[in-house]
Write a structure and sequence with these properties.
It contains five helices and four strands. The chain has helices at 33-50, 76-96, 108-125, 149-160, 162-165; strands spanning 17-22, 53-59, 63-69, 142-145. The protein is α+β, with helices and mostly antiparallel strands. It has one domain (17-182): Transposase IS200-like (Alpha-Beta Plaits, 2-Layer Sandwich).
Length: 188
């Protein structure tokens, strides 16, 4: 059943999607590298759990771009729901300090990663910071179905170099240019 405000999406097999998701009220959470590291970790986990191919990504200060190719098991909406939900949960746990170890999502390596991120956050902002409000995404996301190899190349270049369009630092780390081990090849 679709939510009454949901976009109608085409879930045909073998679609590759160019996806954009924005932070709530365009707040620039991802100016903080700690939150960027959390997003990258959650993206890696989502790839495994939701069995999709990641063709490209760019994390900007207040939004993300992804090129994803879902498997037949999970559609693009399920993939984005997972990414947005876990990123929100983990970022808010870092902000609040409520790193509940009873959650299923924490194996020992993940717990160590999130404890390390919380310690870095406290070191930088103190235990009672007020700079960052609760992390939220805007509802839904925008998507475009890739039509052919030319469309794919155009969107791939747009995605991975999007940080330049937004005047982020030249050495911006959070683009698929720097995470080749996460990127999957596909045939269109």
């Amino acid at each position: 059943m679709q939510h009454r405000n949901s976009q109608k999406r085409d879930y045909s097999e073998n679609n590759v999607y160019f996806v954009t998701a924005n932070c709530f009220e365009t707040f620039c959470y991802f100016q903080e590298n700690i939150f960027c590291e959390i997003f990258i970790q959650d993206l890696k986990i989502a790839k495994e759990l939701k069995e999709f191919k990641l063709c490209g990504f760019c994390l900007n200060y207040n939004h993300i771009h992804l090129l994803v190719h879902p498997s037949n098991k999970f559609n693009v909406s399920e993939i984005m729901q997972n990414i947005k939900r876990t990123c929100s949960l983990h970022t808010n746990q870092i902000i609040s300090g409520n790193l509940s170890v009873s959650d299923n999502i924490y194996c020992s390596l993940q717990r160590d990663f999130f404890v390390q991120m919380r310690n870095r956050f406290i070191q930088k902002y103190g235990p009672n910071q007020v700079k960052f409000p609760k992390f939220k995404w805007q509802k839904s996301f925008h998507d475009h179905i890739i039509k052919n190899s030319i469309d794919f190349e155009n969107h791939n270049k747009y995605t991975i170099f999007n940080f330049q369009k937004h005047n982020l630092p030249e050495n911006w780390k959070y683009t698929s240019l720097n995470y080749s081990e996460m990127i999957d090849g596909i045939e269109l």
